[in-house]
Amino acid sequence: MGQAAAIMIPWARPAFFGNEESYLMQAFRSTWISGGDFVDRFEEEFRRYCGTRFALTTSNGTTALHMAYLALGIGKEDEVVVPGFAFLAAANVALHVGAKPVFAEVDPDTWCVSAAGIERCITRKTRLIVPVHTYGNVCAMDDILSLADHHGIAVVEDAAEAFPSRYRGRLAGTMGGIGAFSFQATKTITTGEGGMVVTENPTLFDTMWLYRNHGMKNVRYWHELAGHNFRMTNLQAAIGCAQMEVLPSIMRERRRIQALYADLLREIDGATTQRFEPDVDAVLWSCAVKLHPEAFPQGRDGLIAQFAEVGIETRPGFYSASQIGLYKAAPLPVCDEISRQVISLPTYPTLSNDQVASICGYLRSFRK
């Protein structure tokens, strides 16, 4: 392999179409750079968009999950069912609270966890199910919620990659007891780092609010529980407010890219995209492609190196839990195969049609 070229097409790039700089400077000049009015405004605008009773900003998507687990009382000897192929924050948080992550196989075509995969993992110790909506796809939530209700198990949706995708008209993250979102720099809307939780349950909301704020409620420096500092800053929230204003434009551009990738990749034998069911209205976070070994014998890592040589940044699919010794997971053949064969392509609103065509053209040329 030759030396990697300078990156001409990055894997991701945040889109600032509106008042991001103006609002950021308003927050800066106000001197309210920790908490402030923009935090309250961002929570309210996000809550209204989701149609939920409560929304609460957090420092990132992982702390959003952490607050959710703590509010539900997940802890030692509890089991948390999570997908074996996904970004594994949900598993890591389970370990942090003393619980055991149990890994479910995902659907081989949608790459999302299903009720059938979850059901095989349920034991008398199962306290929580965490569907992760991978790459902007949405799990078949009605089946998962029915299963959880039958067994009396709580559901927290990890919608970090799926805002604002919908399943049967409902936003990802608004169907379980709690939904967790991420606004990291590569996400559909961004605050640099940051996250949000939404819920309909006032008790869960109040408990998460306490955990976010050092366990303090009405009396400063009086701790009602052993909380954390999981707060978002006013500077971050200012960017979030501006991003919410231009969300329709961001969605339109991401859907343009998604449709173009779908058309062009359909013509490349040996490259299979993630399947989106008819009841899913996806806003793609990342266009990922599964490579058939016969067509791409150089494999995922070889292809990433080939793209790097022509200045295009790509990323591997997530490592499956059974490939990572930390988790001591049982074999997950479906997750393992997807992990070995998936490559993630550049996906962001300012990516041009010509750039998408160039990426797909190189992919076709790399086919053996």
Task: Give an overview of the whole structure.
- The protein is α/β, with parallel strands linked by helices.
- The chain folds into two domains: 20-245, 3-Layer(aba) Sandwich (Aspartate Aminotransferase, domain 2); 247-366, Aspartate Aminotransferase, domain 1, CATH 3.90.1150.
- Helix content is 37%, strand content 15%.
- It has helices at 20-30, 37-50, 61-72, 89-96, 115-119, 141-151, 202-212, 234-245, 247-265, 299-309, 333-341, 353-366; strands at residues 54-58, 79-83, 100-104, 126-129, 154-158, 166-167, 170-171, 178-182, 195-199, 271-273, 280-281, 287-291, 315-316, 342-345.
- The strands form three sheets. The chain has a seven-stranded mixed beta sheet with strand order 1-9-8-5-4-2-3, sandwiched between helices. A four-stranded antiparallel beta sheet has the order 10-12-14-13. Strands 7-6-11 form a three-stranded antiparallel beta sheet, with no helix packed on it.
Describe the secondary-structure layout.
Blueprint lengths: L19 H11 L6 H14 L3 E5 L2 H12 L6 E5 L5 H8 L3 E5 L10 H5 L6 E4 L11 H11 L2 E5 L7 E2 L2 E2 L6 E5 L12 E5 L2 H11 L21 H12 L1 H19 L5 E3 L6 E2 L5 E5 L7 H11 L5 E2 L16 H9 E4 L7 H14 L2
Parallel strand pairs: 2-3, 2-4, 4-5, 5-8
Antiparallel strand pairs: 1-9, 6-7, 6-11, 8-9, 10-12, 12-14, 13-14
Helix pairs in contact: 1-8, 2-8, 3-4, 3-7, 9-12
